[in-house]
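Quarterly update, task 2.4: adenosine-5'-triphosphate-bound model.
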Amino acid sequence: MIVANSLTKRYPGGFEALAGVSFEIRAGELVLITGHSGAGKTTLVKLIASIERPTSGSLVVNGQNLSALRRSAIPYVRRHFGLIFQDQKLLFDRSALDNVLLPLQIAGLPHREAVRRAQAALDKVGLLKREKANPIALSGGEQQRLAIARAVVNRPTVLLADEPTANLDADSAADIRRLFADFHRVGVTVVVATHDQAWIDHCGGNMLRLAHGRVA
Ligand SMILES: Nc1ncnc2c1ncn2[C@@H]1O[C@H](COP(=O)(O)OP(=O)(O)OP(=O)(O)O)[C@@H](O)[C@H]1O
């Protein structure tokens, strides 16, 4: 479902962050993208999410070649993904519930159905009791769980995350790892860039290790 062939990314200025990366991630797999700082993990996540474009090579997601995609088609491809980034871009002028409602409103869901699904997503991440809270009043771990609720509320087939346990205490990080494992268990494809050693040691899936922009 995600197939990369000789994927290369050269940033303006000429630095080659990815140099001929090939791999295949099957539907329902859990894959950790690991590697040293600067290995190219975030760059790979950005290519998969169509935030950046490859310089050469091909990247096929659900049968669609992202390198050949028109810009206008990118939002349609992104619908497959629940994206979770370190900087979660939560809206701090709205409640937790409103943050999770937003993707459903954009998708045009009737309000009642949207609220029902947003509350179910908040419940899944243990935040239903905090639905009225402003994200600013939530802890770092709770904010990350809120970002996960927002990412999964549209029922994506792929959860794609960049360092979702960075900057969290051990217990909060363990909560986040458990949530991703739960989504994997119910058939969601989970792809996570991480250097969380506890996760790497007890991965429960496959590892894609990068070193200096290549698959190690
Ligand atoms: N927009 C950019 N312009 C130029 N170089 C970049 C850009 N983004 C990343 N790089 C460079 O590409 C290389 C890979 O960066 P990337 O963020 O993908 O690594 P990473 O494995 O995610 O690292 P970390 O674990 O530190 O986040 C680094 O050397 C980085 O400096």
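Highlight for this quarter: The pocket of adenosine-5'-triphosphate is lined by residues 11, 13, 15, 17, 35, 37-43, 195 (CB under 6 Å).
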